[in-house]
Amino acid sequence: MQKGKPMEENIKKSENFEDLEPLKKFDLDELHRRQALLDAKFMQKETANEKTEDGLVDAYICELGELLQELKPNWNWWKTKNLTPPGKGRVLEEMSDVLHFYLSWYKKEDFWKQGSLSPYDYQNMIKDDKQAGVILAQLWSQPANKMFGAMLVIAECVGADEKEFLEVHHKKSLKNWTVRSTENY
């Protein structure tokens, strides 16, 4: 991928992210469109490294690791002391980072990757946040809606719902749009 060129050439309208409202439901098309806007803005920024497919996967795995670290008190069976429950704000923020890199990696033209069920159907099939973490680790083999369902399970395990997670994701997107895409971050 070349610097200065947006990953998505088919952005229909130029929007200022600051004019957008948080989504209330997972909408793959709209989430992908918004991520394409953000990616295009980041591509205008001079950086030390070129954005590549491998780099996107590395970033996704790194952020997934940070999310799982926040959830560690829920799955760590070998430690019995000093385990505090996962912090809702940190979990949602790390999950937002995971979603950002997932949406950058996801190719909208690969429609088959969306899945045959809704995120809510998949959510009901995922037993807990531990299984959800494993699903999120299977980047290449899981449909998008199942990935979203896994995120819903994780949000639920920290006492959040879909709307609250998408509000956190929107705030993180705004921060990326207004600050991180313009400064030395």
Question: Helix tally?
Answer: 8
Helix residue percentage: 55-70%
Tally of DSSP β-strands = 0
- Percent of residues in β-strands: under 5%
- Radius of gyration, rounded? 16 Å
Please identify the structural class as seen in this structure: mainly alpha
- The end-to-end span amounts to 20 Å
Task: Round the mean pLDDT to the nearest integer and report it.
Answer: 85
Low-confidence stretches: 1-14
Order of helices and strands: HHHHHHHH
| Major sheet attributes | none
Overall 3D shape: globular
Describe this structure in words.
The structure is a single chain. With 185 residues, the chain is mostly helical. Helix content is 57%, strand content 0%. It has 8 helices and no strands. The longest helix is centred in the last third of the chain and has 19 residues, at 162-180.
Write the layout of secondary structure elements.
Layout: H1 28-43, H2 53-70, H3 72-75, H4 88-105, H5 119-125, H6 129-137, H7 144-157, H8 162-180
Structural key phrases:
185 residues; mainly alpha; 8 helices; globular; disordered N terminus
